[in-house]
Amino acid sequence: MEMGMQMTCIGFPKATSLEREAALQLLRLQTLGALISKCRLAIEDFAGCPENGRYRARLEIGSTEDKCRRVGRCIRDSADAAVQRAFNIAVRCLELISLRFRP
To answer: 5-100 in CATH: which number?
Structure first.
C-alpha cells in the first residue's frame, strides 16, 4: 500500500530541509505499512517557551481500520530533532503493535 504524509508547520514557514527530513523518517514506516493508511505530522514553533524546547512535533497515524491515533509527540530545540524523535516513538509503538498481531 502506498503511504503518504500531510505535513503542517505552525508558527513558521515550511522549509525544504524539514520536508526532506520528514520524508526520510516516513521511509522508516514503510516496513510497517500494512498497519498504516495515512500519516499526519504537525510541527509547531514555541518561540516564547525556550526553557522547554522550541519545537513540538505531533505525529498521527491512521490505521487500515480508519482509526487515527497520535503515536509520536515531543518537544525539542530544533524542528529536525523533534521530527526525528516523534518518528522514533511512532516506529517503536508500531513495532509493539505488530508483535501483538504476529501468529
So the answer is: 3.30.160.100
Which pLDDT tens digit goes with each residue over 58-87? 988 887 666 667 777 888 888 999 999 999
Q: Which residue(s) pair with 9 in the sheet?
A: 43
Torsion of CA 27, 30, 35, 39, to 10 degrees: 30
Total-model pTM:
0.81
- Sign of the four-CA dihedral 41, 30, 70, 78: negative
Helices and strands in the chain: count of H runs, count of E runs: 2, 4
Cβ contact 38:61 at 8 Å: yes
Burial of 7 (0-12, 13-18, 19+ CB in 10 A): middle
Domain ranges of the chain: 5-100
| pLDDT higher than 60, residue 50 | no
Whether pLDDT at 1 is above 80? no
